[in-house]
Amino acid sequence: MSRLFISVLGTVIFLLSSLAVADEKVDRKAEVKNLYHNYKSSLQAGDMDAALKLAEQLYAITPEIYGPESKTYATMVFNLAQVNELLNNTKKAAKLYQEHIDILDGLKVVHDEKYAAKMVLLSETYVKINDIDKALKYGHLALELVQGLKLPPEKIATYELRLGTYYFKNSDRKSAKRHIDKALDLFQQTYGRSHIKTAQALFWQAKYYIGIKKFTKAVKNLENISIIYRSNLKKGDGRLFQVHYLLAYAYGALGKDEKSIEHRLAASMIQPTSFDQDAMPMPIYKIAPMYPRKAQMMGKEGEVVVAFTVNEIGQVEDVKVIESSDTVFNKAAIKAALKFIYIPFVKDGKRVKIYIAEHEITFEMEK
């Protein structure tokens, strides 16, 4: 066999091998395209289990075909993150959103408004898993980005407000107020005082006032919000419940019992009316018990389990001690329980009394 023939044969074999690899890549890309089509169809049909399986398949095979630093793989990572978030697999979603952002950074994609929105998704999942430090990190990065892009004030306001809520959850009230106030100013510049977006910032400002016990200021905000919400929201909207809940608390703290009851009753009728035997009424206000002097002098700590009834206006009655580590604590526990306030429980659209079989009240010495 001549050397020329062998050389030509080798070239043909090489070309055939290259064509086979090319055909295989075409086939695998077609497989990705088909899986992606099925994934979108499953999402549209609401079949989340099927969507998750398909998203996981795409996540597994795409790096081999397109590369681990490709836009296609970044898309599949993002899709899998979203499905996991919809299925409340929040830790997994956070990990995947983080991977998605890291790939985009590796690709040096343009840091535009769309990129900022993805950083928000990442920060929100970190909030849900209580990793507030990382939520703050990406919340700040997103805010700095939209400020640099010089977006309209009302858009920047949403990023300011979101960051303020993160600080609030991190118990950094000073930083929370700074961002919430900035958001409020920006919303008011654009929409005025009576817009629903302005009300959202007013709501968080009210929560700040409650946190520092400035209840009169909180009430003023919340009453304004109530007017805005009643004009803009459907009856039964959960945001109305939150406003009535906080008003019931703030008025109670101010000693205005009639107003507190008014908002307790209003909140109760916004709650789901389906009765659940295991459900508990929602507490508005619980006070710490007065430490008995005798127990304090003896350095005693303990627990008292009480049972009681929450009546139709959310007040506690008929308190009984069920179990106690020491009778020295019983009287103080009963007095504390009688001052608890709840949202009245609703059954079949009517407020009803409900019995709380066990509630533990603890007595601990300050360290």
Low-confidence stretches: 4-15, 17-22, 273-277
- Mean pLDDT comes to 90
Spatial strand sequence of the major β-sheet: 3-2-7
What overall form do the CA principal axes indicate? globular
Q: Can you give the helix content as a percent range?
A: 55-70%
What kind of assembly state do the chains in view correspond to?
Answer: single chain
Count of beta strands: 7
Q: Distance between termini?
A: 95 Å
Query: What Rg, in angstroms, do the CA atoms define?
Result: 29 Å
Order of helices and strands: HHHHHHHHHHHHEHEEHEEEE
- Helical run tally: 14
Features:
single chain; 367 residues; mainly alpha; three-stranded antiparallel β-sheet; two-stranded antiparallel ribbon; 11% strand; globular
Report on the structure:
The chain is built from 14 helices and 7 strands. It has 367 residues and is mainly alpha-helical. The strands form 3 sheets. Strands 3-2-7 form a 3-stranded antiparallel β-sheet, covered by helices on one side. A two-stranded antiparallel ribbon has the order 1-4. It has a two-stranded antiparallel sheet with strand order 5-6. Helix 2 runs antiparallel to helix 3 (71-86) and helix 11 (238-253) packs antiparallel against helix 12 (257-268). It is globular and about 80 Å long. 30% of the residues are buried. Mean pLDDT is 90; it is low at 4-15, 17-22 and 273-277.
Quick take:
The chain is mainly α and 367 residues long.
